[in-house]
Design goal:
661 residues, alpha/beta, Rossmann fold, Immunoglobulin-like, 4 domains, seven-stranded mixed sheet, 20 helices, 33 strands, 26% helix
Length: 661
């Protein structure tokens, strides 16, 4: 039997490691295994090199011409094609449709390493599932497909002599050593581990093994500033077993969110195989799997309790308090705030005593606020980011070089009345906080909505949620509506529509930079993401990428920022009529359009029949070259809409609705 594993990538991580272990097991059973890597992410290749060593010429990496996939399929003639992640996450629709064609000669098996996928959005149906945990099968039971659980094995290992193993890593056996393994991401929560490390002395070392990938630099780079002396960053390693076999405890801090959850982490199972004590959260997705393991100790968000658990596991004895709080005590919100303040005061005192840590001084006056600041030493390439305190969204960010003792200033455009407060970060570390005057809490918060801190996203949120630009008395999202969000960006309007009671949202966004955040921001919600641009014809189109608020413009549209282009990307494109047909969208109660000039193409190409399916439209209409706004407005009016236009200049806001006959 010939089995073909199809992976989105073979860079270091849980998915590739799972596939590598499964490959070894199948080879031991004398089966023929092939692997095709769809995307090559470059330098991260611990598992990739092992695949190549195992398979030789049966390992293939696709180049820029992804249609090579089908050439390989014709040559290999596999009995089974095993996708190691749902195709909806990573495989372009045209490729997936061809792979899943009804006349295929192979069976398709799917595995997913994610627990946040909404089964209702499953569009490509395999012949069966091989899930990695018991969490998945109930979610997909309605599909009625054959299902097996194929967990990552817990392989029993004999621990070597501790002193010799630590010495081989040039570590001091007289100290305690705590291990954290995983890609540096918010979900893996290395920030918490570093925070806990600060609560120990230098006799307890904390070791981090895992990639620091560029696409997560906004998370991990700030953590690298002012690391405590008992923290060591190892990066990606091919000798991970040396760490498992020698160290005293695994601290797995992941807690995830509704949109970005763990499933069945390999590091837990590998640590158990090496008989390591593990400190971790008992997440719902684990289904109580690890309750019976004496090596596992559960923790929560109380860091004092976590410190106590770690000390007990290391045999250091219990402590009565951490930062003045009895370990394990449940405290009130007021007490918790006082504790946090004391912790910050202590951290501030320690920070100022550390000669390697710069000290910033701030003063503020005026409304809108003007920030004047200085630093105690010369610093090159300081990124200062001004963020709304409640939402965590970036208001303004820039990079400058600062001379010690010099004076610098930043003037915001926003008045304090629209700000909950301003948090100022220098290279990712908060250095100042100003109270604001907006007392309306947002449904968008850092724990449920993620963006790239380098993008000025606050104003988009403000337009959608506070100004409610896409809402009017006669043109608004209503409960039960089907919504088409053209130009979804990070998902601000999609989330707004859901808050208003929309039953279903189709979110169209071509920019890969924001799509990866969009998926997290709408995971588990009644949303279908369409990762494509709206264009004249279905196929591919060139997308020009700009800095700022993650602006991206289709080549040929004409509306482009003046001088901040950062690159181009070839993206999937849809004629609007093909999009509605492929996704079987028969009614659109509300259509929001913000596609940077592409609206002229949308309303020029949409058929009268499909325009008749739309009840309400809210749109940013952009001035493009010498094209008159009337081109779009006349089409709407002739299509039976009443129309209002607000604003003037390069962009106007259009609301259109059908008058009930």
């Amino acid at each position: 039997m010939d089995i073909l594993f199809l992976l989105s990538h073979c860079s270091t991580g849980g998915g590739p490691q799972y596939s590598l272990t499964l490959t070894r097991k199948l080879l031991q059973a004398h089966l023929t295994v092939h692997v095709i890597e769809y995307n090559d992410h470059g330098g991260y290749r611990v598992q990739k090199d092992q695949f190549i060593s195992l398979l030789g010429h049966r390992y293939h990496t696709l180049g820029s011409d992804k249609s090579e996939l089908f050439t390989h399929l014709d040559q290999i003639k596999p009995d089974i094609v095993h996708l190691q992640e749902f195709p909806e996450y990573w495989l372009p629709d045209d490729m997936a449709r061809r792979l899943y064609s009804d006349d295929r000669t192979y069976r398709i098996i799917e595995t997913s390493h994610d627990s946040g996928f909404d089964p209702k959005t499953k569009r490509f149906v395999p012949d069966g599932f091989a899930f990695i945990s018991n969490f998945h099968p109930p979610q997909y039971a309605e599909l009625g497909l054959p299902t097996r659980i194929v967990e990552y094995p817990i392989e029993d290992h004999v621990r070597p002599d501790r002193s010799e193993a630590l010495t081989s890593l040039q570590l001091d056996p007289n100290k305690y050593h705590i291990l954290n393994v995983g890609l540096f991401t918010p979900r893996k929560n290395q920030a918490e581990v570093i925070q806990v490390a600060r609560m120990f002395g230098n006799d307890v070392m904390f070791h981090f093994v895992g990639n620091q990938a560029p696409n997560f630099a906004g998370y991990w780079k700030p953590l690298m500033v002012g690391l405590p002396k008992n923290v060591k960053i190892w990066g990606e390693r091919s000798d991970i077993d040396q760490f498992y076999s020698s160290m005293d405890l695994m601290y797995f801090a992941s807690k995830g969110t509704d949109g970005d959850r763990e499933t069945n982490p390999l590091v837990i199972r590998e640590a158990l195989g090496w008989h390591m004590p593990i400190v971790m959260r008992n997440l719902e997705v684990y289904g109580g799997k690890y309750d019976a393991y004496d090596l596992v100790s559960y923790i929560g968000d109380d860091l004092g309790h976590t410190v106590g658990v770690i000390r007990e596991r290391l045999g250091l004895g219990s402590v009565e308090s951490v930062n003045g709080v009895p370990v394990g005590k449940v405290v009130s919100r007021v007490e918790a705030l006082a504790i946090a303040n004391r912790t910050l005061e202590r951290a501030e005192a320690e920070r100022k005593q550390d000669p390697d840590d710069p000290v910033f001084t701030f003063s503020v006056d005026g409304n809108p606020p003007k920030f004047t600041y200085s630093v105690d030493r010369n610093m090159e390439n300081v990124r200062l980011t001004f963020m709304d305190a409640d939402t965590g969204l970036t208001i303004y960010t820039h990079v400058l070089s600062m001379k010690g003792g010099g004076s610098y200033w930043t003037q915001l455009e926003q008045r304090l009345e629209v700000l909950s407060g301003v948090a100022v970060k220098a290279n990712g570390c908060e250095v100042y906080r100003l109270a604001g005057r907006r007392n309306v809490a947002s449904v968008i918060r850092p724990d449920n909505f993620v963006t790239d801190e380098l993008d000025r996203t606050w104003y988009t949120w403000f337009e959608v949620f506070i100004k409610e630009d896409y809402n009017s008395s006669l043109c608004s999202v209503e409960p039960g509506n089907v919504v088409l969000d053209c130009g979804a960006n990070y998902g601000f309007f999609t989330r707004y529509a859901l808050e208003k009671g929309a039953a279903k949202v189709y979110s169209v966004e071509p920019d890969v930079r924001t799509c990866r955040y969009l998926r997290k921001n709408v995971a588990g919600k009644p949303v279908t993401i369409i990762p494509a641009a709206i264009w004249e014809q279905t196929g591919e189109s060139k997308l020009e990428l700009y800095t700022g608020s993650t602006v991206s413009v289709l080549d040929g549209v004409g509306m482009k920022p003046a001088d901040n282009k950062v690159g181009e990307a070839l993206v999937n494109a849809y004629n609007i009529n093909d999009l509605l047909a492929d996704y079987k969208i028969d009614v659109i109660d509300f259509m929001k359009v913000d596609i940077e000039g592409g609206e002229y193409i949308l309303f020029d190409t949409i058929t009268d029949e499909n325009l008749a399916k739309v009840r309400k439209i809210a749109m940013e209409l952009h001035k493009v070259d010498d094209i008159s706004y009337d081109v779009v407005l006349d089409r709407l009016i002739s299509g039976g809409f009443d129309v209002t236009v607000d604003g003037m200049g390069q962009t106007v806001l259009v609301h259109a609705w059908r008058v009930e006959k």
